[in-house]
Specification:
732 residues, alpha+beta, 23 strands, 20% strand, disordered C terminus
């Protein structure tokens, strides 16, 4: 019995349409003078958009670029016509919804390179083709509910936007299906069930089964219906914040969740909320739980709100670690990195092994309640989350409540242990002294020559670091790129890897593992995001490929301060040790000693400005605190042979340089400046960060730092072993 009501997709559309229309806006030229709100005097429609949080509109970058090809997009003012308030029943034109126009300012566009290079007229703009608009006046408006899933489900959807079918602008919606993805998941293909009209670009695409916005309308096919939408998950690629600040993505998602949480708790009116409608949607087909084992819509809204009350996570890897602990397996590494506690929930839908979704999310919430935050939470916020988890578990089954209680107690004990250890380090000296590298995950870029051709294969990964030696999570890879094409090909993969590894206190290390002849690759000068070179934003070091990093040998304690009792002439581990063990022990001893300093430089490939090739005997006889220095081209002799010899002699720290374009320029200023820098540093552990500082000074036009142009640091950290496997060379 349906009581005469529609069912299935049609019923879902009926329920969701008023909510989506109320949050969808028309984008046009900024209002001026005494224009009548909502009239044609606001100018022609550029496209559509929708409120995703109070004061924030999401649309496409090409929409805000309408009519201003030569105008800078970021900072541009646009007009936003919207419906103030939420309709009580029915469409936005019903009593309680007032149409108004307000000015907005474009806060940022994605990708950032659209500010530098835009496509020609009628050409598709680069993905993800998104723009965020900040409304410049406090207004009352509705907001959509954004999905937390990392990937869309290929089900029935509705898309909304501004059309002028009847001669005046209005927000309309149509239904279709998702037919797949494009652009490595950044775009969603819309089926041709209906036509996408001009003006609908920038409007929301809504999953009708789950009642959540999954995409932004981007383009329509020239030959008929259907087109492309951008996944809203691409919002996670918003520019990363400066250290110590909360990023724009996290701020907006926090405001989004708190908005819906407040609407759900409010009893000031009887208007339907997104949470109410979620509870009225038709049951999903093929639901293995039949609705049981999932959080109710009210519980999900409450959980998202309680998570939003907490400070954001310290890093993306912190979120992934908690998700992995709950799922029992590493989460999908391909979607953009999870940046908020809410994103972690999105990785727990349909968990493996038949585990109930609600139970998985409650375990995750328990771990979040005792996690490390980027700053102390509001008093009682973590306890409030735990109290809610415990109460919600009673609805599922009693053994789960007991399990979660034990999990919470273990988490509290571990957090207290970390706090005591941190206090002890503060009193007796930090484990990582000031100026050293962050101890967490790093980004690994590997580049291989493609046979005898001047083409290169590459791979970008996350290297877990000392906590999980050798653990590697691939981000992206490619083949057959020229040296000139590498910066653009690697821009998006590197940006994604940095999002996963950066924390609120430090930018992650970039490790560039290439053959010595590629040590002259100017990676530190590449621009990935923010218009600032990589070497200014973060520490960048060079690695020899192939995972030959030395493991600590006998006599080297965990702090790296021990001494090999056998000395340089006695194989590590005793007379019967394998030569490779001897080599590893010698390298580990040199590494430990050079980290502690004091440092001394030694020219390896030149003497008085003339080239020279160092012998193995000479290198072996240098003090362990020596930093070999190279000032000539790495892909030419004698420097290429010297780099190999330095590594074979067990030196894990060395300096290279790309020579200046003018071959007549003396290398003396470089050697003089580096000698002073090494003496001032005192110990090697601070060199990656000090070199970053030098690059920043040179970028800021400090003449006293110009000598460091082209300098590179070879950094063979034995605690960060590299993989041995090269990617396959494909004929593409």
């Amino acid at each position: 019995m349906t009581d005469g009501r529609t069912t299935g997709t049609a019923r879902a559309f009926e329920l969701l349409e008023p909510l989506v229309q109320a949050a969808t806006v028309r984008v046009h030229a900024p209002p001026g003078g005494y224009d009548t709100p909502g009239s044609h005097r606001t100018g022609p429609t550029w496209g559509s958009g929708f409120f995703i949080a109070p004061g924030w509109v999401l649309t496409c970058a090409h929409v805000v670029g309408e009519g201003g090809a030569a105008v800078r997009l970021t900072g541009r003012e646009v007009g936003i016509t919207f419906h103030s308030g939420r309709p009580r029943y029915g469409a936005p034109g019903a009593p309680g919804a007032v149409t108004g126009t307000v000015t907005g300012r474009v806060e940022c566009v994605l990708p950032e390179r659209l500010e530098e290079r835009r496509p020609g007229r009628h050409a598709l703009w680069d993905l993800p083709d998104l723009a965020l608009i900040r409304v410049l006046a406090p207004v009352s408006h509705a907001c959509v509910w954004l999905t937390d899933r990392s990937r869309p489900r290929f089900d029935e959807v509705a898309y909304f936007g501004c059309t002028e079918d009847l001669g005046t602008p209005e927000i309309t919606g149509r239904t279709t299906r998702l037919r797949g993805t494009a652009g490595n998941g950044a775009a969603i293909r819309l089926a041709d069930d209906d036509e996408i009209d001009p003006g609908m670009s920038g409007g929301p695409v809504v999953d009708l089964a789950r009642g959540e916005v999954v995409g932004v309308v981007k383009a329509r096919r020239h030959t008929g219906g259907g087109g492309l939408a951008v996944s809203v998950v691409q919002l996670r690629t918003l520019p990363m914040p400066a250290r110590g600040q909360v990023g724009l993505y996290r701020r907006i998602m926090q405001a989004h969740d708190l908005h819906h949480y407040d609407q759900h708790l409010s009893d000031l009116d009887n208007r339907r909320t997104w949470t109410d409608v979620h509870g009225e949607l038709p049951p999903q087909e093929r639901d293995p739980y039949g609705g049981r084992g999932r959080l109710t819509p009210g519980e999900r809204t409450t959980l998202c709100g309680l998570l939003a009350e907490l400070p954001p996570p310290s890093s993306s890897e912190a979120v992934r670690a908690l998700v992995e602990a709950v799922r029992g397996e590493e989460p999908d590494p391909q979607p953009p990195a999870p940046l908020s506690w809410r994103d972690g929930l999105g990785l727990l839908h349909d968990p493996p092994g038949g585990t109930g979704e609600a139970a998985a999310m409650l375990r995750y919430a328990t771990d979040v309640s005792v996690a490390e935050y980027r700053e102390p939470p509001t008093p009682g916020a973590d306890e409030e989350l735990w109290d809610w988890v415990r109460a919600t578990a009673e609805r599922l089954w009693r053994p789960l409540r007991r399990e979660l209680g034990e999990r919470h107690e273990r988490g509290l004990a571990e957090r207290e242990r970390r706090r005591r250890a941190s206090a002890g380090r503060t009193a007796g000296g930090p484990a990582r002294r000031a100026g050293g590298l962050p101890p967490g995950a790093s980004v690994l870029l590997e580049v291989w020559a493609h046979g005898w051709e001047h083409l290169y294969d590459w791979r970008v990964s996350v290297l877990a670091g000392p906590a999980h030696p050798g653990r590697l999570t691939p981000v992206d890879s490619g083949v057959r790129a020229t040296v000139a094409a590498l910066p653009e090909r690697l821009r998006a993969p590197l940006a994604e890897a940095f999002r996963r590894c950066d924390t609120h206190v430090a930018a992650a290390l970039l490790e560039v593992a290439v053959a010595p002849e590629l040590f002259g690759l100017a990676v530190e000068d590449w621009v990935v995001a923010g218009g600032v070179p990589l070497g200014v934003q973060r520490p960048v070091v060079l690695r020899h490929p192939g995972g030959r990093g030395a493991a600590p040998g006998p006599g080297i304690d965990q702090g790296g301060q021990g001494i090999d009792p056998g000395g340089p002439d006695v194989p590590a581990g005793g007379p019967q040790a394998h030569p490779a063990d001897h080599e590893a022990g010698r390298a580990a001893a040199r590494w430990a000693r050079v980290q502690a300093g004091p440092l001394q430089d030694e020219r390896a490939d030149c003497a008085g400005g003339r080239p020279r090739a160092p012998s193995a005997e000479w290198l072996s006889g240098l003090p362990d605190t020596t930093v070999p220095v190279h000032c000539r081209a790495a892909d030419q002799e004698p420097t290429l042979g010297s780099l190999h010899a330095v590594r074979d002699a067990g030196y894990g720290v060395a300096v290279t340089r790309r020579p200046p374009p003018d071959p007549g320029v003396s290398c003396a200023p470089f050697h003089r400046g580096l000698r002073e820098e090494l003496a001032d540093a005192g110990r090697a552990e601070v060199l990656p960060v000090r070199l970053q500082t030098l690059r920043g000074r040179a970028y800021g036009a400090d003449p006293d730092a110009y000598w460091a142009a082209g300098a590179g640091l070879v950094w063979e950290d034995p605690a960060r072993p590299l993989p041995d496997v090269e990617p396959l060379h494909g004929d593409l």
